[in-house]
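Sample pair:
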Amino acid sequence: MKQKSFWLLVLFFSISSIGFAQYDGIVGSEGCMAISHDDSRIVAWATDCHVQRGYYDIAKNRRLASFGTDSNAIGHATTIPDQKVVSLGDSGVATLTFARPITNGEGFDFVVFENSLNHTFLELAFVEVSSDGERFVRFPSVSNTPCNKQVSGATGPVDATKIHNLAGKYCIGWGTPFDLEELKDSAGLDIYNITHVRMVDVIGTIDSAYASRDSRGNIINEPYPTPYNTGGFDLAGVGVLHRVVNVTEPAESRFRLHPNPCNDYFICQNLSAQNINISLYSSNGKLLKQWQQQEEQLQMDVSGLPCGIYWLRVGNEVQKLVIVR
């Protein structure tokens, strides 16, 4: 009987813990995933933004948020409060586009910046992506913030370790990263050719008539109300970590690629540096494989790839690869 009671107790605590996983915390804490606005991995920024404003207080006031302009979300994010930001308001939406599409690479692929002045007053937003500008897919989000008491719209706080895949998780100058690999099975979405990124403001109220919910159906409790022209999620920028490569072939390259055309494999010689980055792209610039090469010569099996034209990037040099059968 005692043994049975023990295992029932274990089962109870196991079930109770489901859905309450702890995620990474504030900037500077161990395991924090935040990416700085000046991180060298950021290769580009959004080039256009369209904002549809939300409300001061969706439950009481139909006045719209008004701080900033659409253009404030374009280009490099900063650490200067309110200098370069656009406020969405309750349920507001911002849609951004880029000079070149974002692509799925190794690890995180893009990063969203908000302008919270501290680690706990976190105004959040859902993040969605599209490869055609029409169908958008939302990243699965989690909010484990308790809903027994409304988070104050004046002081907060929100615990970052209870938040996952919601933009605005970190303080100003530090962005929330997103990995397109999570959406690889989404119908109608090409994760190697993302043309649009969209932020949808989280309505932080715990009133079920207006509340936003995460992908598990949990009400998202965050600062509410924020009845000001600066209310809601404050978008400061979207940085790109991986984008579709410009596959214009240079006049000449130092590395040698043969046989070319190839059948089941090719050899790449004269690799001038160790730990050099190598990427293989389809004819339209979609990233297919990316790795670091340790040796001066590479032999790669391409028997599983269909016939056609490909591009091999070695460091900053690109050569055309043709596969025939």
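The radius of gyration is 23 Å.
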